[in-house]
Structures are given as C-alpha cells and as structure tokens.
Write a structure and sequence with these properties.
Blueprint (H helix, E strand, L loop, with lengths): L2 H14 L8 H9 L4 E4 L6 H11 L3 E5 L3 H14 L6 E4 L5 H12 L5 E4 L1 H4 L2 H7 L4 E6 L19 H8 L4 E5 L4 H10 L6 E4 L7 E7 L3 H10 L5 E5 L3 H13 L4 E4 L5 H12 L5 E4 L12 E6 L6 H8 L9 E7 L1 H11 L4 H19 L4 H8 L12 H4 L4 E3 L1 H13 L6 H9 L4 H5 L16 H13 L3 E3 L7 E3 L1 H8 L5 E3 L23 H18 L3 H4 L2 H10 L4 H4 L7 H21 L19 H10 L4 H8 L3 H13 L7 H7 L2 H14 L5 H8 L6 H16 L1
Parallel strand pairs: 1-6, 1-7, 2-4, 2-5, 3-4, 5-6, 8-13, 9-11, 9-12, 10-11, 12-13
Antiparallel strand pairs: 14-17, 15-16
Helix pairs in contact: 1-3, 2-3, 14-15, 19-21, 23-25, 23-27, 30-34, 32-34
Length: 727
C-alpha cells in the first residue's frame, strides 16, 4: 500500500469511522488525488458524498461542491461538522444566509479553516461570488446531482448548463461530476456540457438486491395503501403523489386512519416543510406524503417502503425515488400504482411547453409506460435502461414471482428487424409500430411509408403487442436506441446476426391494465385474486340488465367495478358503495340484483369473504362539488368554473365525471353546444351509444381521434351520454 492509500485509509477511519471503502470509492478518490477529471455514477446509497468529502480533507485549499438544494447542503454541512472538531471545516453559500453569516463564511475560507464550500449553481453565477472564489486556492470542483445538467435528465435545471464557463473563469482545477441516475444519453450530455469527455468514468452497478419492485393496477389505491401501512406498523415510508392537492388529501386520510403521517410539497412555507422533514427524519412520524420536491439528498437509511400513488414522469426519477428505500441494505418495498389516466394527465401538462421539451417529455413517458406494462423482470428492465446488462432474472419482483404466459417470438422479431432496416434505422418505436399495424399518421404520409410492403403486415396483432416485442428486443440487445438522436431504433451486431441466423426465442405477454381480467391481489405481495367465475357471472347479469334497459353495459357498472366486486364480495348496499366506481346513487339504482347474486355465490361455494377493512373517509371540506353542480345548473361556462375553482379543465372534468358516476344528473349541453357543432356531438354520442364496448377513453380516442376531436371534447360527450342514459 503506497503513501496515498495509507493516508486515505487513515482519514476514512479518523473522520468517517469506516475500515473499508464501498464499491469504487477508493479508485475515485485516488483518481482525483492524481488530478484527473472524473465522472461518478453510483446508485442512491452507494456512498457518492464520501468521494469528495474525504479528498477535500486531504488536499490543500477548499473544495467547491455545486449542489442544487439548500436542504441538501445543510444536511451535508451538518454531517461534515459532526466529523470534525472545527465547525468552520464546511460551509454553504446560498440565498438563505444573511450578511453577517456570509462574512463569517468568507472569513473562515480566507483563514484556511474551510475544506468544503457548498454553493448553489445560482450563487455560482453571481459576479461578486465569482470574484471571491478567485481569491483562494481551490482543491477541486464537484458537481453533485449532475443529471440536472441534461435536458434528458429527470430534474433538468438550465443554470447547471452555465457551470463550465464559470469554472473556466475562476481557474482550472480537477472536476468531478456525480449522479445516482443517468442513462448513457444523460451521461454523454453531462460530460459534453462540462467539457470532460476524456474524464475517467466510474460506474457502479445499479443493482440493489434488497429492493422489491411491484406495479399494481390503480384500483382503490388509497384503501390499499392504508391496508399496507397498517400491516407494516411502525415502519418508515414515503408516498409520492403527482399533485399538491392529492398530497394533502392522502396525508389527511392517513391521519384519520390513525397513521402518523405528514405532507410535504413546494406549496408549503419553508418552515413547515423543514419541520415536517425533520419530524420524519427523527421518527416522530412514520410516513411522509410528498411530491417529488421531497427526498433529494435525504439521508435516512431505514425507509422501508416507497409507494408511488402516481407513476412518475421518467424512469430516472422513478429509480432515484425508489432508491430511497432500504439504503441500509434492509427491507425496501417499491410499490407503484399504475393507470393510463395518470399518463394522459402527464401528457396534458406538457401541452403548453416548448416543442423540444414536449418531444423529450413524451420519449421519457414512453419509457415509463413501457416499464409499467411490461411483464419482464423489473430489475432487468431498469438495468437495461441505464445501460447495464443482467443475465438472470432477479426473482424478487412482481413479474418474476407471478410470471405471465410466454409465446414464440422468432417471427415477430424478424418482422421488426426487417422493418427497421427498411426505413434505414431512422425512426422511433412508435413509428415502427404504426407501420406494422397499418396506422396512417401524418409522419407515415410524409415519408410515404404506407407504400412499404411492411405497412399493415402485423395488423393481426394490436399496437400493444408490437410495443412489448420491441421492449424485449431492447433487453435482449437485438436493437438499441441511438444516444445522440435519442429514441431512433438501430440494429446491434446481435440483431444483424439474428437476421442471418434466426433461432427460437420465447417472449412474455405484457400486462394489460385496461383489461378487466387483469389479476389483482387483495393485499400487497400475495393474497386472493379476482374470482373469475363470479366476474363472468356479474358480466352476464350486467348484460341482461343493460338489454332490458336498452343501455350499453358499461353505463350500469364498469369492468373495474365488477372486478372489485369479484374481489371484495359485497353483500349489502353499504358494502357495494365501497366498491371502485360505485356511488350511492348507482348502488341503489342498479345494485340489488348484483348483491343478491354475490350473496348466493358466496353461500353456495362456502367462500370466506375478506375480513372487512373499513377505511375512515375524510369529511370533504371542499365546496367544489356543490359549487360545480350549482353553477352548471346556472349554465356558467366550464372555463369560468375552472377559473373560479383554480382547477385545470382535465381536473374539472374529473370532478364532473365523479359527480355523474355517483348517479347525479348534470346537463352540460349549453357548454357543449358552444364549442362543438351538432354533427360532431351526434358523431361522438353515437359512438358511445352504438359502438363502444366499454367506457374506455383510450379506446374512444383510437376510434374518434382521426376525426380531429380533442380528448376534452370526447370526455364532455361521454359525461352527457352517461348522465342522460344512465342517470
């Protein structure tokens, strides 16, 4: 062991109390001590911080750590001060400091006391700070959370793009970029922007053996979450929601059900946010319900579960958020509720963004949908996304523990490879799928691809099937996505070899979360699935009632509602109202025959019903429902109701649909007539009356989308139809 190694092992023990390094920490530190630039990719819990904290203590001068969050800086500075007897050893410089505090920071740095100075990228760009940084010796620069540099990263921040020019102005020193999550595309982006393409690259495996991954259909998610937490009393967990409103609602529901929980989101004042975060860290509460504003740099090792109430916008964000579970190597459950409605909401939020951002957002969202709907080993998919191969399945995710059926994939793979070659490897997955199923889009027409012999050659299967095959071809490395023009499908050497010498290969059927037959457990990680016999009987009953009333069956009860009945076995009106999508109005209007059928089925088959799990509901303090009903009665335009309630139009339609589905009749004809002509209204209405087999919005848009109708217009006519026909 040479002198440098002896020194770093001595400091490792002296300051941090460890006898050995984790993973590649030693190699990273030695490279920095040799004056090299380095790119460090380590998963959450892999020990990134030590890679710059330890060498900062050893080298002359002060290390500049560029970090995105004030809370993260404070956490790290407190941690470093705990290792040293001198409180001046680490400081941060950001907008939270007053003039006296800033003067103290500068005095300690110029006095040679400070080994680490944490700065926000915004602070780094201020001219007086740049001039100050020129006055003392800088040992090295470290850019933490470096994925923020890339527009393809999950937390892009434009100010990160200015770091390299400012470092050049201050003066050259070794540069380290660190991140817990980066695809090959993002890694290239970071290195290019920081002018460090020649840097030494240290990539640790993304595999976290202790994490269990599961994606579940979003049916009665709040109830399922409460059930899970009650079955894991005293364990720490984080629940992520998309909106601040849902964070508040869910946190309140948990508290009402005797769970120690607090909300956390960017709309709260900073003092409340800090207090709630500290209470979670100090174990005064068990659960934090949060938007993605929570978690970056939070060093709590014993988070036992991370639940996503909404699917995230990108797999990078998802991986980093789930990575906060089990950082101590203990149990870590990562459970996600998936509904295509959430994807459509995320797509809606993108509509007002610049075209470039929309394109990136759609690509990232496509990856997320692929992950959720795929039935391949979850860990294998995640590692593949981050450019890492894994031979064996993990054996510890929902897809491994409950495998879906397999099918022979040789011909399908050949079809896709030939199509990609035919279009000269210049198109993304969605375009290839559109060619195969014969869907005429603007892009197909532009390139005259409807003239290809491959156009429509795969129309015996649906688009979902072909997307599943493409996903598995990526994992088997027959194809890859180009890094520079991200998303363009290219053949790999393995793909070319397969074209020459095709062999038998078994692929797995995907999940279909829109399908009422999707299996669903009554509790996490096992339990009773849907009673398929009862489900079939309920569908027959629904069909006969619908025929009598001359209504489409989905107007009576939706497939997800019947599925939930075949799990919960409700035998009273009150129990029926606890079923997904069944309000009191619908229960009393249509429910009698259903609960009689269920009771008879339970008695004849001696079925033990699941023990009743009563979730206390929160008294709805919101006046939205009453306000909406009153003002629709007054014929107030829906966009004005949006302005008055602070809701976006998709959110208002969510509220209106909930009101109508509970069997309350609403007449929004006055508004529909102001935005659509009579022929358009009749066209959409007839689809729901005569063609629709379910009330699925996705199916409706596939059928009606080519006519130029927007999703909001179709939803409004669906409300009109269900209100008039069902209520």
């Amino acid at each position: 062991m040479d002198n440098k190694e002896q020194q770093i092992f001595y400091l490792l023990k002296k300051y941090f109390g460890f006898n050995t390094f984790k993973g590649q920490q030693k190699e990273v530190i030695l490279s920095l001590l040799d004056g090299n630039d380095s790119f460090v990719l380590m998963p959450t819990g892999g020990g990134k911080s030590l890679c710059y904290q330890l060498p900062a203590m050893l080298l002359d001068g002060t290390a500049i750590i560029i970090s995105p969050l004030i809370a993260l800086m404070k956490n790290q500075v407190d941690s470093m001060r705990g290792f040293s007897t001198d409180s001046g050893v680490a400081h941060f410089l950001n907008s939270s400091l007053n003039k006296t505090e800033i003067a103290q920071v500068k005095s300690d740095i110029l006095g040679g006391k400070t080994k680490l100075l944490y700065v926000a990228p915004e602070s780094l760009t201020k001219e007086d700070n740049v001039e100050f940084l020129k006055k003392f010796k800088i040992s090295f620069f470290a850019v933490d959370e470096a994925h923020c540099i890339s527009e393809w990263g999950h937390d892009f921040r434009p100010e990160y793009r200015r770091i390299r020019p400012i470092i050049n102005e201050i003066g050259r020193a070794p540069l380290m970029a660190l991140t817990a999550t980066a695809t090959p595309k993002v890694q290239h982006d970071i290195q290019k922007n920081l002018d460090m393409l020649d840097a030494e690259v240290f990539k640790s495996s993304f595999r976290r053996h202790n994490l269990y991954y599961e994606v579940r259909p979003k049916i009665k998610a709040s109830k399922e979450i409460i059930r899970y937490i009650k079955n894991n009393t005293g364990k720490s967990g984080i629940i992520y929601c998309l909106s601040r409103k849902k964070v508040e609602e869910l946190a309140e529901m948990l508290v009402v059900n005797d769970i120690k929980a607090l909300p956390y989101h960017a709309g709260m004042d900073s003092a409340t946010r800090s207090r709630n975060q500290d209470m979670f860290l100090h174990e005064e509460v068990d659960v934090i319900v949060a938007t993605i504003a929570f978690g970056m740099g939070i060093d709590k090792p014993d988070v036992r579960f991370v639940i996503h109430y909404n699917i995230p916008k990108s797999l990078e964000g998802y991986y980093q958020e789930t990575g906060r579970a089990g950082r101590d190597g203990g149990e870590g459950k990562c459970i996600t509720f998936y509904s295509y409605d959430d994807i459509q909401k995320l797509e809606k939020f993108m509509q007002n963004k610049p075209v470039n951002e929309q394109e990136i957002g759609k690509q990232l969202l496509f990856e997320t949908v692929s992950y959720a709907e795929s039935s391949v080993c979850r860990v294998k998919q995640l590692l593949n996304y981050f450019g890492e191969e894994m031979e064996e399945d993990c054996g510890n995710c929902d897809n491994c523990l409950n495998p879906k059926p397999k099918f022979e994939g040789k011909e399908d793979i050949l079809t896709i490879l030939n199509t990609i070659v035919r279009v000269k490897e210049r198109f993304k997955a969605e375009h290839i799928v559109n060619i195969l199923v014969g869907k005429k889009t603007d892009e197909i027409a532009t390139y005259k691809h409807e003239q290809l012999e491959e156009f429509g050659s795969g129309n015996e299967e649906n688009a979902r099937h072909w997307k599943a095959v493409i996903r598995q071809m990526l994992i088997h490395q027959f194809i890859e996505k180009e890094i520079v023009n991200y998303g363009l499908l290219k053949l790999t050497d393995g793909g070319r070899e397969f074209l020459k010498n095709p062999v038998s290969i078994m692929l797995t059927k995907d999940h279909n979360f829109e399908d009422g037959s999707e299996e669903r457990d009554s509790g996490f990680g096992g339990g009773s699935a849907t009673d398929t016999v009862l489900f079939s009987m309920l569908k027959d009953l629904r069909k006969s009632i619908a025929k009598k009333l001359n209504l489409p069956p989905f107007v009576i009860f939706s497939d997800p509602s019947l599925q939930d009945m075949a799990i919960q076995y409700p035998i009273t009106m009150n129990e029926l109202t606890m079923v997904s999508g069944v309000g009191q109005g619908k229960a009393h209007k249509y429910g009698k025959e259903f609960i009689e059928l269920i009771q008879k089925h339970v008695e004849e088959n001696e079925i033990e019903r699941p023990q009743d799990f009563i979730v206390k509901s929160v008294v709805n303090k919101s006046t939205n429902k009453v306000f909406i009903i009153k003002n629709i009665d007054k014929k107030m335009p829906l966009d004005e109701i949006c302005n008055a309630t602070g809701l976006e139009m998709p959110e208002l339609l969510d509220e209106i649909e909930a009101i109508v589905n509970s069997c309350t009749r609403l007449n929004i004809n006055y508004y529909i007539d102001s935005i659509l002509d009579e022929d358009a209204v009749e066209d959409i209405y007839l689809y729901f009356k005569e063609d629709a087999e379910t009330d699925s919005l996705e199916e409706a848009m596939e059928e009606l989308g080519d006519s130029g109708y927007s999703e909001e217009e179709v939803r409004m006519i669906r409300v009109k139809f269900i209100s008039e026909m069902g209520n």
